[in-house]
Amino acid sequence: MSSVVVIGGTSGIGREIARHRAGRGDEVVLTGRDAHRADTVAKEVGAALGLGLDLSRPHEIAGALTEVGRVDHLVLVGVSRDDNRVTEYDIDAAIHLVTLKLVGYTEVVHALRPRLHDDSAIVLFGGQAKERPYPGATTVATVNAGVTGLVHTLATELAPVRVNAVHPGVVGDSPFWSDKPHEALIARTPTGRLATMRDVVDAVDFLLGNRSVNAVNLSVDGGWLLR
Fold it and tell me: How far apart are CA 165 and CA 127, in angstroms?
């Protein structure tokens, strides 16, 4: 049995990761912005504990994690959707997302550092907007590219703790994409199918479990970038 912390585990892929690991018999702690919802989801998926934690408020993160003990596996999934363009730049929205995903992720690792050990593993979440930006991805693409750099520096600083990242493309059955048209997206994907949440969970399991995989930024997109 492993102790697993899923930051951003109340919905979508984060919830699926928490549910999967709890179903395997691991001791799972999940977090979400709302403490009541985190507690409710924890009970629904079989996690040991649900905690309220807002990544965009980094000064409060350490206090929110005081109940967490030893950490074997740490998964940082939390994200905020953002549509921000240079021509109509929303500074507050940009600061929110940069703080959440770069400062917030790093502060979680900082707060939990004493509870990690030599065989611990961390997986961060980025995204393929870093490679193929779209109108409105000004901040999203930049932040996800920043995750690549964060993986490299954390793997160096925390060694021998392993640090990797998953960069999903379009995840067809995720809450954000499930009700949107898929035909054009599938046509641009060499596998002829979109990634699923199960695919992403499998990728996270691989990165957490393989003790020789370190400082890797893994794309999970069916080869979408080839077309």
Answer: 9
